[in-house]
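Need residues for this backbone.
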């Protein structure tokens, strides 16, 4: 089986397992997703989703956050960790959105990457979930599962994993597949203790097949 054939098999099986593919962060507007994904660095989505309502209760718009002192933002987001740097990035990002984009969010990948605190992961998430454009979000689940399954070969750098996956995944499937990787990584293919016996991919996954070979 080629990597492209493997990718198609993985896509179809995970579609059947997790038909409702969506971002696990709560948000209403694109700018809120930018805030949430910055807060999610080294923090759980659950903690982020408990924190953002408190942040938006005090600063309910791009303009409000742009005008807020970073210390006020930090005070609210402290439970998410890395408070000072996250507060600075959120403040700077909202200022750019307010001053340059009239409180909107740019729709090109390059413009998103140019925003303070926005990397490829964040930009791809916005492109896929908000604008419905082809996107591959190489978060920890995507990188780990892609290597275990055999879609990539011992590659850990997010940008390199993204580049390799683009070669084998149909553009329209990338965003949803990455959400399904998150679902599968939390439910079955758990880090350090994957439940291969209960996995819908255990007859095509490189890691599961290697474990069978050891028995």
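Answer:
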């Amino acid at each position: 089986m080629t990597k492209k054939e493997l990718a198609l098999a993985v896509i179809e099986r995970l579609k059947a397992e997790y038909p409702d593919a969506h971002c696990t962060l709560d948000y209403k507007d694109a700018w809120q997703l930018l805030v949430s994904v910055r807060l999610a660095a080294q923090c759980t989505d659950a903690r982020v989703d408990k924190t953002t309502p408190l942040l938006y209760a005090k600063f309910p718009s791009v303009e409000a956050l742009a005008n807020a002192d970073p210390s006020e933002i930090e005070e609210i987001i402290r439970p998410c960790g890395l408070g000072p740097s996250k507060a600075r990035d959120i403040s700077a990002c909202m200022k750019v959105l307010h001053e340059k984009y009239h409180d909107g969010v740019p729709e090109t990948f390059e413009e998103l990457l140019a925003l303070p605190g926005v990397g490829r992961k964040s930009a791809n998430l916005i492109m896929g979930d908000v604008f419905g454009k082809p996107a591959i979000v190489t978060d920890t689940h995507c990188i780990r599962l892609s290597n275990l399954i055999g879609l990539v070969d011992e590659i850990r750098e997010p940008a390199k994993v993204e580049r390799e996956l683009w070669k084998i995944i149909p553009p329209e499937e990338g965003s949803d597949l990455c959400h399904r990787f998150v679902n599968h990584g939390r439910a079955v293919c758990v880090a350090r203790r994957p439940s291969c016996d209960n996995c819908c991919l255990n007859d095509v996954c490189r890691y599961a097949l290697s474990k069978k070979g050891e028995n």
